[in-house]
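We were asked to recover a plausible sequence for a given structure. The inputs and outputs are reproduced exactly as logged, with field labels preserved.

PROBLEM: sequence recovery
POSITIONS: 224
GIVEN STRUCTURE:
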C-alpha cells in the first residue's frame, strides 16, 4: 500500500505542477500573475514537506560549496554542448526542433507590460525551476528508493519530465528531438542532484539554464 500512496502523491504533485504552470503561462494581468505566484508558493511548500518526509539524506536544502558550483558549471557546459550536437543531428535528419511549450510562451509574452514581463520571467527563472526540481528530482528520486539516489531513478525522473513537457499525448517523429532535448536537460539536472545530494544545486542549475535560454527572448522583446 505504501507504493500506491507514493504514486498517488506523485500524480497529485505532477497535476499541481502542470496546473500551476498552465495558470502562470496563461496569466496576462498582474493580479492573475500574483495569484499564480501564490499557487507556486503553495506547491513549493507542499513539495518541500513531502520531500522532507521521503528524502534519503540530510543535505537536500543546504547552501552550495565550491564542489557543488563546479558540478553545476560542468553539467551546464555538457547540457549546451549536447544541445548543439543533438540539434545538429536532428536538423540533419529533418526533425522538428521547436516545442509547443516554447512557441506558446513566446506568443504569450508579446504585448505584456514591463511589470507583467518581470513576473512572467520570475516564473521561468525562479518559481518554475524550484517547483519542478522538488517534484521531479526531490520527490521522484527519493520516494521510490530506500538508501541512495540511483541512476535508475535519475533516468526515470528525466523520462517523466521530458514527456510532460511535450504538451502532447504521444511521442512522434515530429516531436522526438524535442523529447530528447528535454530528457538530456532533465538527466543532467538529476546527475547534479545525485552528485551533490543537494536540491539547491539542481535548482540553481535549472534556474541558470532557463535564464541563459531566456536572454535571446529578452533581447527580441526589447528590440521588438
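RECOVERED SEQUENCE:
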Amino acid at each position: 500500500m505504501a507504493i500506491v500512496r507514493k504514486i498517488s502523491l506523485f500524480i497529485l504533485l505532477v497535476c499541481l505542477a502542470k496546473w500551476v504552470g498552465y495558470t502562470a503561462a496563461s496569466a496576462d494581468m498582474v493580479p492573475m500573475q500574483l495569484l499564480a505566484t501564490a499557487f507556486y508558493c503553495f506547491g513549493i511548500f507542499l513539495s518541500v514537506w513531502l520531500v522532507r518526509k521521503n528524502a534519503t539524506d540530510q543535505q537536500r536544502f543546504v547552501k552550495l560549496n565550491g564542489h557543488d558550483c563546479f558540478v553545476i558549471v560542468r553539467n551546464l557546459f555538457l547540457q549546451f554542448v549536447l544541445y548543439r550536437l543533438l540539434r545538429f543531428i536532428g536538423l540533419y535528419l529533418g526533425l522538428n526542433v521547436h516545442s509547443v511549450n516554447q512557441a506558446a510562451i513566446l506568443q504569450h509574452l508579446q504585448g505584456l507590460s514591463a511589470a507583467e514581463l518581470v513576473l512572467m520571467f520570475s516564473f521561468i527563472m525562479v518559481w518554475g525551476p524550484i517547483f519542478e526540481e522538488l517534484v521531479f528530482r526531490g520527490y521522484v528520486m527519493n520516494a521510490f528508493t530506500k538508501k541512495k539516489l540511483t541512476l535508475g531513478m535519475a533516468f526515470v525522473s528525466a523520462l517523466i519530465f521530458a514527456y510532460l513537457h511535450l504538451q502532447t499525448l504521444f511521442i512522434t517523429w515530429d516531436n522526438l528531438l524535442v523529447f530528447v532535448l528535454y530528457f538530456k536537460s532533465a538527466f543532467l539536472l538529476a546527475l547534479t542532484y545525485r552528485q551533490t545530494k543537494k536540491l539547491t544545486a539542481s535548482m540553481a542549475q535549472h534556474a541558470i539554464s532557463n535564464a541563459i535560454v531566456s536572454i535571446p527572448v529578452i533581447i527580441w522583446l526589447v528590440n521588438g
